[in-house]
Write a structure and sequence with these properties.
Blueprint lengths: L6 H26 L2 H8 L2 H6 L3 H32 L4 H16 L2 H15 L9 H27 L2 H9 L4 H31 L15 H12 L3 H31 L1
Helix pairs in contact: 4-5, 4-7, 4-9, 4-10, 5-7, 6-7, 7-9, 8-9, 9-11, 10-11
């Protein structure tokens, strides 16, 4: 009589097969890859050491500044759009809905081209305050605001309706209750997805190169590409990628911790 495997045994067999496939794939890649050629092209220690400290003091610093400025602008605009989306005034809801659909549907690259080319053509003689930094904040912020608006709106709607009723019973106006009671609670709810949006903006800051930046305004991707072209070697690109991970990995860890804490609180 053929013995049947239990559910736990079947699961262990399945996991064993998956691990075996994974190890086999690693072995195949390891045997087929030309590691000497990869090292010569991507891991030149002398070239990598020459990138410092400029890659930190200029490229990484600019990347962080671009990201933070875009995030702040997007957060403020996203809050306004979210409140318009929840407004009882129909035109406000329509404008907010159209904005969200357009800027969520367009690639971020097209938004940067619009900011760098279309805005100066549409408003001759005017310049965006802050130069390149202002353009980047506007480009990143316009993209981020569309996503943040929906996140914030969901957070506001997640606050129990009794909170608004309690605030109104204490004599708060609707606007004051939103500012003092509802919005702070909503932001505590949406901190994890907003932090995740910060990670995405940090990577999207690489699109700055399409605005035409100076040497002192270069971010990590532009810095790595320029040095790779000058040296005919891809080591600067690899080092720039590691600098991205230096920021995004800790931020991703923070997002997971915040999400776990929020799940535990619920």
């Amino acid at each position: 009589m053929t013995s049947r495997l239990t559910r736990r045994q079947r699961r262990r067999v399945s996991q064993g097969i998956q691990y075996a496939v994974f190890v086999a794939a690693l072995v195949v890649v390891g045997l087929l890859a030309d590691w000497d050629r990869l090292q010569n092209q991507f891991a030149q220690k002398d070239l990598a050491s020459e990138l410092f400290p400029a890659i930190i003091t200029t490229a990484l610093r600019n990347t962080v500044v671009y990201t933070v400025s875009g995030f702040v602008f997007g957060l403020v605009l996203g809050l306004v759009i979210a409140l318009m989306r929840l407004s009882s005034v129909a035109p406000y809801r329509w404008v907010a809905g159209v904005y969200i659909e357009i800027f969520r549907g367009l690639p971020a690259l097209l938004i940067f081209i619009f900011v760098g080319v279309a805005v100066p053509l549409a408003f001759p003689g005017t310049e965006i305050p802050g130069g390149t930094y202002g353009k980047v904040a506007l480009g990143l912020g316009l993209v981020a605001a569309a996503y943040m608006a929906e996140t914030i709106r969901a957070g506001i709607q997640a606050v129990p309706k009794g909170q608004m009723e309690a605030a109104r019973s204490l004599g708060f106006s609707h606007a004051r209750a939103m500012v003092s009671v509802i919005i702070p609670q909503a932001f505590r709810i949406v901190i994890p997805p907003l932090t995740n949006e910060l990670v995405l903006l940090f990577k999207d800051s690489s699109l700055v190169l399409f605005l035409g930046v100076t040497l002192e305004e270069r971010e990590l991707t532009k810095f790595g590409r320029d040095l790779a072209s000058q040296t005919a070697n891809s080591t600067p690109i690899l080092v720039a990628g590691l600098c991205y991970l230096l920021v995004t990995v800790p931020l991703s860890f923070v997002v997971r911790r915040l999400e776990a804490r929020a799940d535990k609180a619920r």
